[in-house]
Amino acid sequence: MAASSKHALAAQVVSERERARQEYSEAPLIGRSPVFCRLLDQIGKVSLTDHPVALVGPRGSGKTTLAQYVHETSRRRRGPYRRLHCAKIPPTLVESELFGTTRGAFSGAADREGLIAAASGGTLFVDSLESCPLDVQAKLLDALEGHSYRRLGANREHRVDVRWVVATNEDPETLLQQGRLRPDVWDRIAVQVLNLPPLAGRPEDVPILAMHFLERERLDNPELGAVSGFEPAALDALCGYAWPGNVRELMNVVRRLVTIAGAEFITAEDVAVAFGSGAGRRSPADPLQRMLEMPYIEARKAFEHLYVRRRLEDCGGNVADAASHSGISRRALYQILERHRDRTE
To answer: Do residues 202 and 238 lie in contact, with contact meaning Cβ atoms separated by under 8 Å?
Structure first.
């Protein structure tokens, strides 16, 4: 292939990735923070392979968006994309949804293909893997290795041709220790692991995302008024929020703000109204205010404890990530936890 053709193909791939990243889904892959840029770089490399991908991150951090983006930028993008959310269906139905059924397998069962067959040639996204029953996880082993599977109640084996993307809201190490995730299943899935940062871990992306959601609301609902932006104090308030619901929560807050704003620019007062009770905010009335009333030594210890706990919460309990985001070694973080007898592992 000529060099010019290679460059044209590379430019086309980059263009398609950018389009996919910006245009579809409720929680777009938008941001400029270093941690988010590193994630995008990882995604670009992962999309070039056909290996299984594991997405790890708290609820609302964009795992569904990322799974679809991996598909849209892969060589399987012209194939089907299917999703199974294990936490949203009864555990007894997970096996039949994945593998399909054969007439007579159980009362009322009919011949029906499952999501593995429906996703053939494309991508199958299994969300909330921690909610998949262990016996079903065991039956996934052959399919994950790209061999075969059987419909529920059948003897005939079918070949597997899917790219596996799975997601979990919880730290895989914790799930393994608790016996909610089979080690042999995780070994086959964890070829590529992408850790999605919580929104609180990339506050510099909040204004960018807020403006994106605002522009989208203006286009979708022009009758709501002429809200065109945020006052600086309003953005400061948004950046100071803990965002326990991550990007999805920010999207909903912006939707709320568009309906209650009384002027062209959203104010800090509008943000306070949108937050309601303020659950999740890190305000001066929180533990920080109490620290200011303590002697210095006690306040320093209290802050150290609070800081580490908050970092662990932001990182879903993952000690290695919390240490990295804190700029300290994992050993140092463990020492802090030990001092406060707050071990999490």
So the answer is: no
Nearest residue to 253 via CA among 232, 226, 281: 281
- Distance (Å, rounded) from C-alpha 213 to C-alpha 148? 43
Q: Give the global pTM.
A: 0.70
Q: What is the DSSP string of 96-118?
A: HHHHEE-TTSSTT---EE-HHHH
Cβ proximity of 270 and 257 under 8 Å: yes
Q: How far is CA 99 from CA 115, 128, 140, in A?
A: 7, 17, 9
Contact 111, 103 (CB under 8 A): yes
Contacts with 264 (C-beta within 8 Å, 6 or more apart), sequence order: 226, 227, 228, 229
State whether the Cα torsion 300-302-307-312 is positive or negative: positive
Report angle CA 228, 233, 235 to the nearest 5 degrees.
Answer: 60
DSSP-derived 3-state class of residue 9? helix
Q: What is the chain's pLDDT, residue by residue, as a tens digit (345 residues)?
A: 444 443 444 444 344 444 444 444 445 688 889 989 999 889 889 988 999 999 999 888 889 999 999 999 999 999 999 999 998 888 888 888 998 877 756 666 667 888 999 999 999 999 999 999 999 999 998 888 877 887 776 677 888 899 999 999 888 999 999 999 999 999 999 999 999 988 888 889 999 999 999 988 888 877 766 788 999 999 998 988 888 889 989 999 999 998 888 788 999 888 888 887 444 444 434 555 555 655 566 667 667 777 877 787 777 777 788 888 888 888 888 777 776 654 333
How far is C-alpha 80 from the chain's CA centre? 21
